[in-house]
Specification:
single chain, eleven-stranded mixed beta sheet, two-stranded antiparallel sheet, 13 strands, about 25% helix
Length: about 300
Amino acid sequence: MMSPTLLVLAAGMGSRYGGLKQIEPIGPPHDTGSDSGRETIIDYSVYDALRAGFGKVVFVIRKEIEQQFQEFVAARFREHIPVEYVFQEMENLPQGFFAPPGRTKPWGTTHAVLMAADAIHEPFAIINADDFYGAQSYRLLANYLKSDSGGYAMVGFVLRNTLSEFGSVARGVCRVTQDGCLEDVTEMTHVEKVGDLVRNTDGKGRVTDLTGNELVSMNMWGFTPSIFAQMRDEFRKFLERHGSDLQSECYLPSTVNALVSVGSASVRVLRTNESWFGVTYREDQARVVESIGRQIQDGYYPKRLWDE
């Protein structure tokens, strides 16, 4: 059985956060006294994936950040695991489709994943570059992908373990069948803590109270290469409906929902109790740094990852 590949979606630029947050330092200071050697969320993601048994990393980036991103990666973990790059460009569309004049927004995460179709020929996991998922999550997904089941999977996080203290977040709230498979994902775009409650407010002001114990998708998926043909079909359908829009995006959870709803795909939900950390807002940075520091003190990570 081939080792699975890790596909990292790193083309986004975090509008609410500002800047190239994928390479912001979150690890402890090194002896040099500068930030240049400090680990980033991507470092911890690749480190956890390597320990879990992943054998290659493929990054989806944009041409405009290629030099900065590759210089960062070359100085880090390229000696420890093979690395490839693919590019998400707005003009890279199926034959017969063209980006409308005036569109500057990327086509979404389904399109980003499709950019890796020629680079991946083995079971693979998908993650966001700016999300910290925890070592257990990578082990769960690697073990599933190496089990030779041939199926798809999603790591399900407990909602209360994924919230920001500094504002609302978008979360895909999952319904799971009794036998542990994904039934559907409902996108909730304004989820926040309100005292001891967790609440979503939709675009029309309608409020949904949540327990906080719901399982949510944090865009950590496991697939086999057969997903590419299925995604390509769904993306063409999206372009037929929304290809002339300037803002519409084809999101991965929506694509998976569509496949599950017609019985074209079955997705096993792998529950993790890990706390998700991310930098949705710049204020989240201090919390992430503190959380990583605690895990280093507790022995989950060495102080310097790539000296090991």
